[in-house]
Amino acid sequence: MAAPASRFVELAKQLHPRLQRFLAKYPPSQILPKSTATNTIRDGATPNPFLPHKHPVTGRWHDPEYSLRRQAELVKLAREQGVEELLPFTSKGTEERIRHRVELGLRVRGTGVGQKVKGHRHERMLAPKMEKRRTAMLGMPRLIREWRKIGKAKWSKYPR
């Protein structure tokens, strides 16, 4: 039992110093022994340092201990080191960012079905114009064959 624990300690020493300090101050429930696992962030004994929390006695709200910028930096470091799942919940986490992106989408006005995005006329008409040009180019071999068959003299107008 001591050998695996010492191995984890050696792995933890290879982490970035900022991550080491954070994990020492706020150890995740995954690495705590079962006897102390009840006294973790989820149970409310140690509040999540990334979220504001209400003081149990005074009822006043306390700001998060880590600003959003510092949270993002910690999450980036943890992602690079492969230990992001050990961090407590934060809005800067990868899973939360992906969930937020899926839930809200791009949020660009006019990207819904049947809506048009504002812009200059030449920008709005670019897609249909290119589609029309593409279909014309696909029909070009047939048009050339007709031209060669009829000739310039009898070619009155672009055949419709």
UniProtKB/TrEMBL annotation:
Domain Large ribosomal subunit protein mL59, residue spans: 17-149
Annotated GO CC locations: mitochondrial large ribosomal subunit
Molecular function as annotated in GO: structural constituent of ribosome
Pfam families xrefs: Mitoc_mL59
PANTHER family: 54S RIBOSOMAL PROTEIN L25, MITOCHONDRIAL, LARGE RIBOSOMAL SUBUNIT PROTEIN ML59
Stated name of the protein: Large ribosomal subunit protein mL59 domain-containing protein
Taxonomic source organism: Microdochium bolleyi
